[in-house]
TrEMBL record:
Belongs to the short-chain dehydrogenases/reductases (SDR) family. The keyword Acyltransferase does not apply. Its EC number is 1.1.1.100. It is an enzyme of class 1 (oxidoreductase). InterPro entries: KR_dom, NAD(P)-bd_dom_sf, SDR, SDR_fam. Coiled coil: none annotated. Residues 9-182 form the Ketoreductase domain. This is 3-oxoacyl-[acyl-carrier protein] reductase. GO terms for molecular function: 3-oxoacyl-[acyl-carrier-protein] reductase (NADPH) activity. It holds the Pfam family adh_short_C2. Keywords: Oxidoreductase. The keyword Cell wall biogenesis/degradation does not apply.
Amino acid sequence: MTFAPPTPRTVLVTGGNRGIGLAIAEEFLALGHRVAVTARSGQGPEGSLTVTADVTDAASLDAAFSEVEAAYGPVEVVVANAGITRDLLLVRMTEEDFTDVIDTNLTGAFRVVKRASKGMMKARFGRIILVSSVVGLLGSSGQINYSASKSGLIGLARSVTRELGSRGITANVVAPGFIESDMTSVLPEETQAAYKKSIPAGRFSTPSEVAKVITWLASDDAAYISGAVIPVDGGLGMGH
Ligand SMILES: NC(=O)c1ccc[n+]([C@@H]2O[C@H](COP(=O)([O-])OP(=O)(O)OC[C@H]3O[C@@H](n4cnc5c(N)ncnc54)[C@H](OP(=O)(O)O)[C@@H]3O)[C@@H](O)[C@H]2O)c1
């Protein structure tokens, strides 16, 4: 069996200054790609280009894409990773708590995909990867806003697949389970222990394990995978 070296691509990762986004950017860099990250604060990993953008602001995203295109050429791989939580039980969740999370996690991904699709359609090549969550499939008490936003990404990716699939563009969803990051370290100890008990793998994952699946989805080997939801959850979401 022979292994071809990966085709170097221009990659943009949103929220690449920390957590899972940082690991995704590092993994693409290690494979020899041209990597840019968006950040509201801080920097992407050494060797990447950091551009400022807020995914709730289409104009800032447009400027960020233009900056990346000027430096590295059209964006060929985009990873919509930026996301937030605002966990509250339904009785306490305000409409603003709901719409703010949707605006970042779902409408934010729409803005990123819409801007990225321009260059991808022209090039007749593109890899769109949306970072969802196991709770988008399972639901989660206290996360009605978050799980709704993460389920929405599946409809987004599948509809993009139907619209743009014939132009060499794939759109896939990665659904991580519990990953060691700032987002999960704020959970109370007892909650973390209860979650670990329910995960068949018996442990949380690392950002790097998610990143490796994403770089593979962007690779030439995954050209015929589109509209898929790939779990990286140690079996937590099985059957959903
Ligand atoms: N950790 C988990 O267990 C887990 C599980 C399933 C799915 N996920 C998903 O994985 C993704 C990354 O999560 P993480 O654990 O790495 O979270 P994190 O450590 O909290 O990092 C979130 C990233 O998103 C960025 N971001 C948030 N709002 C933004 C906005 N309006 N515009 C631009 N960037 C924004 C943050 O930028 P700043 O630094 O500027 O705030 C940061 O870079 C999220 O979509 C999350 O829902 C995480």
